[in-house]
Amino acid sequence: MPLWLRLYRRPLLAGDLTAGVVVAMMMIPQGMAYALVAGLPPVAGIYASILPPVLYALFGSSMTQSVGPMAIVSLMTAAALAPLADPGSALYVTLAAQLALISGALLLLCGVLRLGFLAGFLSRPVISGFSNGAAIVIVVGQVPALLGARPPQWHAPSALLGLGSLLLLWLAKRYGGALLRRCGCGAAAAETGARMAPMLLVLGATALVAALDLAGAGVHTTGHVPSGLPSLGLVASAGHWRALLSPALLIAFIVFLMSMSAAQTLAHKRGEKLLTNRELLGLGAANLASAVSGGFPVTGSMSRSAVNFSAGANTPLASVVTAALLALALVAPTGWLALLPLPVLAATIVFAVAGMLDMATLRQAWRYDRSDALALLATTAGVLLLGVEAGVVIGVLLSMGALIWRASRPHIAVLGRIAGSEHFRNIERYAGETLPAILVLRVDAGLFFGNVDAVGARIDEEVRARPDTRALVLVLSAVNQIDTTALSGLQEWNRGLAARGVALHLAEVKGPVMDRLKHSTLLQELSGPVYLSTALACDDLARRAPPLHGRAQGGALP
Amino acid sequence: MPLWLRLYRRPLLAGDLTAGVVVAMMMIPQGMAYALVAGLPPVAGIYASILPPVLYALFGSSMTQSVGPMAIVSLMTAAALAPLADPGSALYVTLAAQLALISGALLLLCGVLRLGFLAGFLSRPVISGFSNGAAIVIVVGQVPALLGARPPQWHAPSALLGLGSLLLLWLAKRYGGALLRRCGCGAAAAETGARMAPMLLVLGATALVAALDLAGAGVHTTGHVPSGLPSLGLVASAGHWRALLSPALLIAFIVFLMSMSAAQTLAHKRGEKLLTNRELLGLGAANLASAVSGGFPVTGSMSRSAVNFSAGANTPLASVVTAALLALALVAPTGWLALLPLPVLAATIVFAVAGMLDMATLRQAWRYDRSDALALLATTAGVLLLGVEAGVVIGVLLSMGALIWRASRPHIAVLGRIAGSEHFRNIERYAGETLPAILVLRVDAGLFFGNVDAVGARIDEEVRARPDTRALVLVLSAVNQIDTTALSGLQEWNRGLAARGVALHLAEVKGPVMDRLKHSTLLQELSGPVYLSTALACDDLARRAPPLHGRAQGGALP
Questions:
Q1: Which ranges does the record mark as transmembrane (chains A, B) (predicted)?
Q2: CATH assignment at residue A529
């Protein structure tokens, strides 16, 4: 039993019930709309909104996350399946579930292996650039449904319904809250009430289609929506496992990333703590549940979770309430849904997704760090020009490039002794005393393959700049780890420096690092002891040093 | 004109001439053998050894690197072309050159964009694991040529030639040097002389085939080797640009990696300095030259460069001499080469590549850092089970995972004041005085997307552990950069801490970081000034602080 359920107290119930109902009202049109984005029949969106949030409630760690269909993940689903099957075909539906299955299994695997730190793969500007690109692709993709025909053509009744809906949604967002407040609603209730606009719009539009027989006039509708709960079970296409693996990997990554950024924003607001690896388990379980109940890949949605949060959700019970209401909706007669006009659903998609467009991050990055802004724009351009999957890869590559670039520039300080003390500080910042024969360098980063070349180059530079150097003391007080590549580096530096008449010494090596080094041959290769402190090293070396002019000449070539 | 040529002095000539001749003798059998590994006619290997080293001599930065065909890159060429054309076909030859063209263009592009730091993408154990896997694949691939038939069958005369050659090569390596020394050679000359064994073997075996008509007995030979220099010009298949792009990217990466590790080892020995981005330009130019002269992807070879080095090469002139000799060999009658027995060439490949197997790194890593050893083995397994291209990708992913993991664990210290001073030091290592209401944290790494979550979590943890905290001073003395993601993080921490009654303050912010921050809204959002020193911050906060019990209560949920 999850912790929140064991600790559940009566006073939390009211908030959870309200939020559950509110989110259910939001979820019905949204689920159907995002199923359409994924190229699936609308009912699949409802299926994907029942079991997944319940499983997430059992295994996830966020109190207010709402798991279900989400625009960007639906777009990626469509991109993954497009080369493999025709939208609407039975194979397509099977492959969508299979994609959720593989993504879910990958997420679970990452959770078990505690790979949550991989969320650090992408910087925030890159995530923003990716979301913006995906939002534009989705909006452009909905234009034909919105107009009832592929532009430049359009079908007048459909276009009227679609564009009219957009206008109504905009009005509801702009003035709905104020109107409700004037009618006596509290501020929070008014805000929440305004969020019901898509559901009311869908109900109204469906009634309009029925009343005016707009379907007869050529307005496309969702058509027959099967009644009843989804049948449980797994249908998979044996021939497609391999083809689905790499899109599933990208989808799992984006599922995790989108869910984490939504959950984190809300957790910050209430001082809650998210457990990254638990999130992976929760999302993995949710996707497996989606796979066995006729759904497709799901994730936490920022917009829906924010509604859940502001409608008063205290625990994941709110999501369970939502799921129960959606199940009820399927058990109730669904015949009326057949007349739901697609232009109106397209309008809800366009409106919701346009709201995801984030210009603030671009503006901030442009002013603050131009390279971050360029990474953002490059990722957006990648999504628009090369597709959503290539966009993820470009984002990862840009972020990784930045990571390596940063790792390859560790902070290294030349130290000098503060007069009359045993303290050694950076001579760029303090008036420290140095000896011509003894160079003291402090490396302020763990030594590993990503910075070992840079550190070696810096050592080389500092030694060349001080031709009188006979001893180099590396102060490792800030070095928490030395990996195998860096160990080889230390051995090479030791040999290279010795050939130039400079002895390498280590000082202030941390306990765990020292334990490791004892398993290598480095300590025997060094010409002196490992010193406990920099002061001890310098005193000892100053005592031992032969006269300056006796040193071996270096072997550097022109 | 390159620097080495402008500074060229007469005394360097003898060494360069000797090394040039020695390497040419090594290059003829090796070039033909590695062309066979790539699935190409042997003469392509000679073509790829003429112009590329000359271009590298003009643009590269290593003094002793020998650029030309190399086993692993040939294997990758074969893997890239296998799905696209039949080995030996005209299309195959065209695509091999096209692959060199794209790889060369990518290398040049990386050089112009100064992306040399990307070599840090792979850790040394992962490179070793990749090389080992590739070596095993190459050896296994040569077994049919060695035996003259696909095992379990074998062709007796071929197998005798092949296995006999292996034995001779082993004897030459084991005893050749000692024998030559006993005959009066100097140590260096003897070592170099022993390296001529493959060439002598090839000459002897060819003579044997001619004398005994072994070709008539069913021993496969290289067949007609066209005489004359390669014709210059570019033939490309318009339909294959896209298919070649991703293998070319992997090949360019491995070309750079293999060349750098060879050049670096030798540069270390003589205290020379390599210019990473110049290496990219040199290798890019070499591959373009290979593409327009009937070759295939080339790189610096560790084994050949080591021979060049120990045979006395002082400058890239040695490589130019080698190239000139190979060109001469092509202009001279090449009829005799037609009888060169393939089992003997296979033996030279197996012998050379088996020598590349590196168990020392595995042994060292296993003792020193088990996770590095596992990464090495996983990369080898990836190459063996999934192929050489997947092996590169696995290696990059493993290295990147390690990089992110390390980046996500920055060193953070709680500081205390050294009694009676203005120094603040890590309280885990020094007896520092702390105040209950003021928490002082020093972050020893630049703040960026890869560690911002980890730093946030650590701040949260430290503040929770000290519920009396009213002010948090972040000491940024070691923070060289704050990227856009980290800026957002600081803003979120500031808001989150304020909601819990804790004021966030910054101290010792570096000049360039401060300049950036002035372009953001962070400084206005903070509740106090940015302090020049930690001591000033603590003195000021201790003075300003309201009584402890007056602080606002935190809003943390259960």
A1: 12-28, 34-59, 66-85, 91-117, 129-148, 154-172, 200-219, 239-259, 311-331, 338-357, 377-405
A2: 3.30.750.24
Same domain, B455 and B386: no
Would the CB atoms of A519 and B400 count as touching at under 8 Å? no
- Structure letter (DSSP) for residue B238: G
pLDDT higher than 50, residue A556: no
Closest CB to B368 among A404, A484, A496: A484
pLDDT at A549 over 50: no
pLDDT of residue A424: 85
Domain count, chain B: 2
Give residue A214's Cα distance to chain centre. Answer: 43
What is the gyration radius of the CA atoms in chain A, in angstroms?
31
Collect all residues of chain A within an 8 Å Cβ-Cβ radius of residue B366. none
Query: Per residue in B436-452, is it b (16+ CB within 10 Å) or e — as a string?
Result: ebbbbbbbbbbbbbbbb
What's the pLDDT at A137? 93
Whether A406 sits inside 8 A of B485 (CB atoms) is no
- Can you tell me whether residue A299 is helix, strand or coil? strand
**Closest Cα to residue A154, out of A291, A23, A365, A346?**
A346
Q: Domain ends where: A341, A357, A373?
A: A357
Contact A407 B405 (CB under 8 A): no
Helix axes A51-59, A317-331, angle to 10 degrees: 160
Expressed as residue numbers, the domain containing A353 is: 13-357
Chain center to CA of B350? 23
Task: Give the 3-state DSSP-derived string for B43-92, with helices as H, strands as E and coil as C.
Answer: HHHHHCCCHHHHHHHHHCCCCCCCEECCHHHHHHHHHHHCCCCCCCCHHH
Written in H, E and C, the secondary structure of A227-253 is: CCCCCCCCCCCHHHHHHHHHHHHHHHH
What gap in Å lies between CA B33 and CA B52, rounded to an integer?
A: 17
Would you say residue A553 has pLDDT above 60? no
Question: Which pLDDT score, from 0 to 100, does residue B546 have?
Answer: 53
Please name the amino acid found at residue A210.
A
Q: Is residue A387 part of a domain?
A: no
Q: Which of residues B226 and B103 earns the better pLDDT score? A: B103
| HSE value, Cβ hemisphere, 13 Å, CA-based, for A162 | 25
Rounded CA separation B58/B285 (Å):
9
CB contact under 8 A, B273 and A368: no
Residues A49 and A164 in one domain: yes
**Contacting A residues, span 479-518, partner chain B, CB-CB under 8 Å:** 480-481, 483-485, 487-488, 492, 495-496, 499-500, 516
Interface ipTM: 0.75
- Domain-located, residue A558: no
User: Do B280 and B185 have their domain in common?
Assistant: yes
Rank A328-332, A413-417, A527-531, B68-72 by mean pLDDT and report only the highest.
B68-72
Whether A428 contacts chain B with CB within 8 A: no
The reply to whether B1 falls in a domain is: no
Q: Over pLDDT 70: what percentage of chain B?
A: 97
- Asked if B454 and B339 sit in the same domain, the reply is no
Mean pLDDT in residue range A462-482: 89
Give the separation between CA A497 and CA B271, rounded to whole angstroms: 9
Q: How confident is the model at residue A438 (pLDDT cuts 50, 70, 90)?
A: very high
Looking at the fold, whether A154 and A271 belong to one and the same domain comes out as yes
* pLDDT tens per residue across span A114-153: 888 877 678 889 999 999 999 999 999 999 999 988 888 8
Check B407 against A411: CB less than 8 A apart.
no
